[in-house]
Amino acid sequence: MNKTIVITGASSGIGKATAQLFHAKGWNVAATMRNPQAEKDLKPDDRLLLVRLDVQDQASIAEALRSVLQRFPRIDVWLNNAGYGAYGPLEAGSDEEIRRQYDVNFFGVIDCIKAILPHFKANKAGLIINISSIGGLLTLPLFGLYNSSKWALEGLSEGLWYDLQPLGIGVKVVEPGAIKTDFSGRSLDAFDLSNFPEYNAYYATISNRIRDPKMVKNFSSPDMVARVIYKACTDGSKRLRYLAGSDAKQFWTLRRWLGAPIQMSLVKRYFKL
Ligand SMILES: NC(=O)c1ccc[n+]([C@@H]2O[C@H](COP(=O)([O-])OP(=O)(O)OC[C@H]3O[C@@H](n4cnc5c(N)ncnc54)[C@H](OP(=O)(O)O)[C@@H]3O)[C@@H](O)[C@H]2O)c1
Hints:
- By secondary structure, the chain is an alpha/beta fold.
- It has one domain (4-270): 3-Layer(aba) Sandwich (Rossmann fold), CATH 3.40.50.
- It has helices at 13-24, 58-71, 95-123, 144-164, 200-211, 213-216, 222-234, 246-258, 260-270; strands at 4-7, 28-33, 48-52, 77-80, 85-87, 126-131, 169-176, 188-190, 241-244.
- Helix 1 links the parallel strand 1 (4-7) and strand 2.
- 39% of the residues are buried.
């Protein structure tokens, strides 16, 4: 019997690349997204289902789960991938922007996990994979709010790793470095600085560095992350964390071996702060 994966945020980037890879590997794929009617690349067939799911809408999560289980007999993997990045000094973010960051990146994941757990418990099997970030293990300037949502996801995942193992359910986290996707375009929610000019020079220094074409050309592909996700699904291990990308591995090596204070001073030097 084919295995089945459900993917949130499969309309682009890492989610779409993962849907394509798992489909090519013979899995059943439920590619969920906010606007499936707009999807052009993923073509529905007997193993690929497009389903509407907005992680901010609990009813849509329940409805998506019902549709997937009508089509496929069981779900083996639930991939919490949907997410985006708030960017800027904290006080420039409106209450709505700040809460939305956590609604999508953190509470949306909790709602999906609570929805799928009864199915996994009934099967005494299942795997939850959460897409975190290297920014779930350390923090970059102006990304504090986004990174904190991924730190929260890391802590949640580590706790669930203990709690769900006795029920036969696995939990894994994939931590990509910088990836060439829509993340730095439409998925970047840049705060409005007009009332906070005191940050202008600092903001410009960091933003120019982040957009530096020499840096952007070294970003990894979403296909690489999809392959790491595939490995996490198929290696049969109980391993919790999978770094994805050489930059993520380098950052983590620096943090681990030199300690946070030195790694943070290297980040300051890198951004010329
Ligand atoms: N790219 C990177 O450098 C990088 C690095 C580390 C971690 N990540 C993480 O990787 C994940 C995927 O990002 P990506 O790089 O592939 O960016 P992306 O191409 O912009 O994809 C983001 C996806 O999230 C979806 N999404 C946003 N809000 C949603 C909501 N309320 N409900 C359902 N789906 C929603 C988007 O759907 P719509 O099409 O409907 O907007 C889109 O499919 C995110 O969790 C991100 O934090 C990315």
